Description:
With about 1100 residues, this protein is mainly beta. It is built from 9 helices and 84 strands.
Amino acid sequence: MYLYNLTLQQATGIVSAINGNFSGGKIQEIVVARGKILSLLRPDELGKLHTLHSVEIFGCIRSLAQFRLTGAQKDYIVVGSDSVRIVILEYNKEKNVFDKVHQETFGKSGCRRILPGQYLAIGPKGRAVMIGACEKQKLVYVLNRDTAARLTISSPLEAHKSHQDSTGVAAGEAQKHLTFYELDLGLNHVSRKWSEQVDNGANMLVTVPGGGDGPSGVLVCAENFVIYKNQGHPDIRTVIPRRADLPEERGVLIMSAATHKQKSMFFFLLQTEYGDIFKVTLEHGNDGVTELKIKYFDTIPVTASMCVLKTGFLFAASEFGNHALYQFQAIGDDPDVESSSSTLMETEEGFQPVFFQPRGLKNLVRIDQAESLMPIMDMKIANLFEEETPQIYSLCGRGPRSSLRILRPGLAISEMAVSQLPGVPSAVWTVKKNVNDAFDAYIVVSFANATLVLSIGETVEEVSDSGFLDTTPSLAISLIGDDSLMQVQPNGIRHIREDGRINEWRTPGKRTIVKVGSNGLQVVIALSGGELIYFEVDMTGQLMEVEKHEMSGDVSCLDIAPVPEGRQRSRFLAVGSYDNTIRILSLDPDDCMQALSVQSVSSPPESLLFLEVKASIGGEDGADHPANLFLNAGLQNGVLFRTVVDMITGQLSDSRSRFLGLRAPKLFSVKVRGRPAMLCLSSRPWLGYIHQGHFLLTPLSYEALEFAASFSSDQCAEGVVAVSGDTLRVFTIEQSDKGSYTAEEREAARKECFEAAGMGENGNCTMNQMENGGDDEDKEDPLSDEQYGYPKAESSKWVSCIRVLDPRTATTTCLLELQDNEAAFSVSVCVLFLEDGRSLELLHKTQVEGVPLALCQFQGRLLAAIGSVLRLYDLGKKRLLRKCENKLFPNTIVSIQTYRDRIYVGASKRRDENQLYIFADDVVPRWLTASYHIDFDTMAGADKFGNVYFVRLPQDVSDEIEEDPTGGKIKWEQGRLNGAPDKVEEIVQFHVGDLVTSLQKASLIPGGGECVLYGTVMGSLGALLPFTSRDDVDFFSHLEMHMRQEHPPLCGRDHMAYRSAYFPVKDVIDGDLCEQFPALPLDLQRKIADELDRTPGEILKKLEEVRNKII
């Protein structure tokens, strides 16, 4: 079995974040590390976060830092990763990629305690960088520039300090030290200047600006204290204020810090483990620091990293749940709870604490947020909404930020307006008054017997002086020439000049216009019976009839290609006929209406659209690709057919088709991020757009639409206006990143004594609001749990509940609160006593000797895993009755699945005559985090080190067991290797690089093949698709091999070594690496394609096909 691994949703959690000017100029950007992904974010002036670039580095990012050489205009990024190479990256804004400037190796690869990469420190003027390990090793690199102003890096200088004691005694008695190192640039030597003991609870250092900006030194953040230290300076200590309701035994630790420095002042923001932010300021003069003040600032959810941007924003990369961008309303100058080193009082019990009460946001206001699924605790795939495709139900977050999210493949939609119309419309268009206008002037809606014209201004209102004929339905409305409007209705063409003059062209005899195609300078109409009439706009702006042409039968659809830049007309007209053909006709004066090529299709075409892609070298979408003209056709059988039109001869090549839905797709041209894109409306809407040089087709998370047009006004620059039933809708498409999933949140299980104080997490309208959540920080309850956390209980006390949810209405149908400090660890549906299946009632409790970590129904009885014992229970009147058990498991059992008479428990077992026998187990002991039963002999599993593997029972063993119904043979067989008599074979092995928390087998598209989906702690979703043909396996394994050689990972990790981090990778092809092919330079694409005896186009087609099988 060969599998293709593809990430469907990139990791959304953030491990660390840094900010700076990475593209040069004054623009502030944020670089975030999401485990194995490096992303560049930029907030715009309105405070909306945009992802400019995201790249998988096939390694683990351990640390990030940024530096700027003196006098330079932009910042560089230093990455410490598990490749054990220090890598310096520069963002190239022309090509929208990270360029590797330097890569220096200093050891063997992996994340180990003595390998540098865990910590980074940058010299204050960007002249040196120190990279440190958890223990022993520290290396210093000197940064400089050569004569051509390029960055140079020296060989490493060592600053090691050896601590070795294999007995572990020293570790128990260890004392933390703070050490200052100095780099002498003249001698090119690092020396330890000074070292002194610090509090053993110290967990973070914050640099204090030095030189002309401040007193230099560091802030040491320890449990309950912040201490200022510098060489030759007395310690200045102050206590961290604590919440009044915090139990005494709980300390306060600082989790993240950010520094804001201006010419005249600087301050620090420190956040505690409870989410409270404190502003720290230093009073300093010529004789050093005199006072250290800590003032309560605001409370936001706990962050992994905070970045203060010079533009007045605070980016908070949350530890769990959605990340947020806040704007500063003030910088905390108003009086508030403050603790100072000058008022620190020591009593017999220790230093006197300072108390404060959390309040609503005063200095910050949240203006945007970025979705985060981290961590996905569990995931189930089911079609509870009875839609075309199943939904993914995931439990995300933890504690007060936990949520149940419903994920659907597709792009998020922001709905701007919905309004009722007086009838059911058949079509809608938007039109500008002049070709140079930025915004549309009219929305025109056509009904069965009338046309409604709406003017777009401050408000949208009906007008009657537009010149359009409103007593007839319309077939097309468009801007023609530079400043004239055209209305095509069944009996003729109405041409409205800028000065209000109206020219009419009427149809001959009793024939009516059935189809129309236009592009601003050319118009072609099809009359009933199949006659085509071609018009052009002449120099004076008049519409002139040029040519007539009889087709063999009625025309089903028309489209004219866009006019190329610098030309007067486009050469290509596409005509779809009911005889299942599409013809390309010429519009050149020399061979007007001559057929250039014919394409037969599987069903009559319903809609045609030309999509022009301009040539790009690097640029915004980070890929090189030539100019192309695509012809898209929506066929009556629900298939979208796409082919490339040769821009000179008009010949068709490289055809692809994809089933979109049960309705014939209607195609419309829209703009996304300033580039042409295609909206396909079938039984659900789809968006076709170019991303990094290849065409992507992604569903939109929205209901079915009948007709659409692009829409642009001063409130909404890039929107879509559409009709659905008898409503008119205006919406924008949120982002077009690869493989995005949109989430709807449902109320999650919370601490029930506070009955869910709302999420306040609603970012856009594809996310259903909670039953009792608000859009902004809950106005009625200023202290929402989501923001402030729960009150902290004493240790070993908790609250737990079991909730039954109806996902359609987001209502809780049943809530069982567990009393007396109980917690639910595992749940299984056996036989429920329900009223219409919506609520639970307690029958009885059975006391057992350990925590049952797994439960499963098995042949009308209950299997329970209690520690390392597997036990079978039957239902009694007052308690569960033991039937049989097996105590031969070496470790704690964490999962049970059953199929027929086999039980799969991270190892396989068999039950017979009330006895459980282990007949096969795995050779490698693993720390299992997820497992899934694939078929009778196969299991999939994931371990806590980020590996996914499949094991299969050998066929001869399986047959032998099936032939022995009593299990007599197994009973007396000797175990091998301290385990079962037989071993399972490992057939698939792959290192995902992220802890997998759930596995499930499902098909995500109608008629698609089944694949195994996995969710991870970092909030990513991936799929493993089995290959069906040997040819595909050969093709993709060769493509992967060439990509490994020609395009090694960005941060220096060897791709093969990364995917084999714990066990050699086996029979899995990495689709994430193969999908980087379109981002390669064109000459490299051709080189790889020649090696594979293919063209680059064929490789892209293969990549698209395999992606379409999954999603």
